[in-house]
Amino acid sequence: MADPRTHRPRLWSSAATVGVLLLAVLLVPPLVQLDEQAVDLSRKLLPPSWEHPFGTDDLGRDLLLRCVYGLRISLLVGLVAALVATVVGTAVGAAAGALGGWTDRTLMRLVDAFSSVPHLLLGIFVVALFRPGVWPVIASVAVTHWLSTARIVRSEVLSLRTRPFVDAAVSGGATRWRVAVRHLLPAVLPQAGLAAVLMVPHAMWHESALSFLGLGLPSHQASLGNLVQNARSSLLTGHWWPTLFPGLLLILPTLAIAGLAGVWRDRLNPRRRSELTL
Amino acid sequence: MARMTGRRALAALPVLLVVTFAVFAVAAASPFDPVKAYAGTAGLTASQENLDQLRANLGADRPLLARWWEWLTAALTGDLGDSSVMRRPVADVIGERLGWSVLLAATAFLIAIALGTLLGVLAGRRRGGLLDRAVSSAAYTLEAAPAFWLGLLAIWFFALRLGALPAGGLTDTASDTVTAGQVARHLVLPALVLGLTQLPWFFLYVRQGVGDALDEDPVRGARARGLRERTVLTGHALRSGMLPMLTLVGSRVPELITGALLVETVFSWPGIAAATVTAATAVDFPLLAALTVLATAAVLLGNLLSDLLYGLADPRAGFDG
């Protein structure tokens, strides 16, 4: 993984995958003008073919189109959740690292407590009580994802605080607030940004798991997880394609974004060996 | 050693307390109403006096802190309240299902460790080789694959296409007694899928550990003494390469629980993870709260185990930390 020779192809294939998926999600719905909900019972459960590359589902809807819409919804939920989690995590981490002392201890104990509940379980708990709707799902994903960002930002701030430019700013009479906002925050943003990018596929995964369990998005907002859930009855009659393709569309962006983020991480920390993260 | 165990266990206690309190605080902040949940559809037609009476009986009108304290003290005596969806005491539900979850999780863990170690050694002995690249790519893909999706595809292939294994449940539908043979057959698919979801982490750790160990002096020394390659690989490289993985097994409990939530649901396995999902769907607060706290306790226990094993395996890591 750390081999620089493999960087270029990995970078290009990851970038191409992300690009194609983004274009599909952004351009297909406004341009194609096809109704992804259009039911055609004469065409139900057709296997993949040239006309329907992903086949059709039990109501005769084209699965490729359904998957693009599903990816669009999952991606949107993932992006918003990752954004919320990054803002919260950066704020908490920066506050803990910059203020130190009692604030630091309290905030980090809080992070520890949150981390002790398995993330999907915490998500399920929150969604169960605040259901139904899109916002509870976004909140439940965000509430489990800000912890790692808070830890990363805090440790980054702690190591930055001992650096000469911070000393210089302090001796120059800068206030605590000014040091935090003008000197510490800009320096931690790349790390927080990297964490945010890596968080998006993870957040999509969470949303899909919740939707699959029937606790996520309402079924008319067909996310990838809803698609897999709706395909269960078809699967039991031996039709595999409505299950296979939504899952592949969850794996593909995860691998591609991990590939991009891996290159980014190596640039950020050239000396640190690539870790086993995904 | 005992002192460290005690200290770590004591440090876990406040975390557990904070989590139990947070469970009640979140419920209090949510639109969830225990009275309406208890009354069900009858609540729609019941008079206001009846609802108020019920509210008083349930103690739902009392402050958050009082309700939390009452639950906590009752929980310490083994009384976790009644589950509305299972229509039984929560403690009974947990007692009946916990064993099945532990069986599933332990089998999955063993599969992941055995398979991960084997593949990790094979890949780690020649990093960058064909086998390593193939298995590593597969591991990253597997890590990205949702557990429920893998489970469904496994059902399709092994249960429907091949007809080799049952698709779910604990026993055959026709039988009403639980026999070991039936359980074993029904265990194969869920344990395999849950094991596969845990496999990438074990594999990548062993691969890294063995690969690094092969570059180090003990291995060079063993080679210089003319030991056989197999002895070097399993006796020297694997032993030091597996250490970090084994000591971190305890910290994998959260991922195991996350996987179990999905796998038990897909395979209708009668464990506590599937009960958690049922409780969440039905907004059965007493059951959901108890299972959330139980899972947290399992995570803390796993962390404690990790710390202990790490201390045992590496004497340099402080026993007084």
From TrEMBL, chain A:
<dbReference type="InterPro" id="IPR050366">
    <property type="entry name" value="BP-dependent_transpt_permease"/>
</dbReference>
<keyword id="KW-1133">Transmembrane helix</keyword>
<dbReference type="GO" id="GO:0005886">
    <property type="term" value="C:plasma membrane"/>
</dbReference>
<comment type="similarity">
    <text>Belongs to the binding-protein-dependent transport system permease family.</text>
</comment>
<dbReference type="InterPro" id="IPR035906">
    <property type="entry name" value="MetI-like_sf"/>
</dbReference>
<keyword id="KW-0472">Membrane</keyword>
<keyword id="KW-0813">Transport</keyword>
<feature type="transmembrane region" description="Helical">
    <location>
        <begin position="184"/>
        <end position="205"/>
    </location>
</feature>
<feature type="transmembrane region" description="Helical">
    <location>
        <begin position="110"/>
        <end position="128"/>
    </location>
</feature>
<dbReference type="Pfam" id="PF00528">
    <property type="entry name" value="BPD_transp_1"/>
</dbReference>
<keyword id="KW-1003">Cell membrane</keyword>
<feature type="transmembrane region" description="Helical">
    <location>
        <begin position="244"/>
        <end position="264"/>
    </location>
</feature>
<protein>
    <submittedName>
        <fullName>ABC transporter permease</fullName>
    </submittedName>
</protein>
<keyword id="KW-0812">Transmembrane</keyword>
<dbReference type="InterPro" id="IPR000515">
    <property type="entry name" value="MetI-like"/>
</dbReference>
<feature type="domain" description="ABC transmembrane type-1">
    <location>
        <begin position="71"/>
        <end position="261"/>
    </location>
</feature>
<feature type="transmembrane region" description="Helical">
    <location>
        <begin position="73"/>
        <end position="98"/>
    </location>
</feature>
<dbReference type="GO" id="GO:0055085">
    <property type="term" value="P:transmembrane transport"/>
</dbReference>
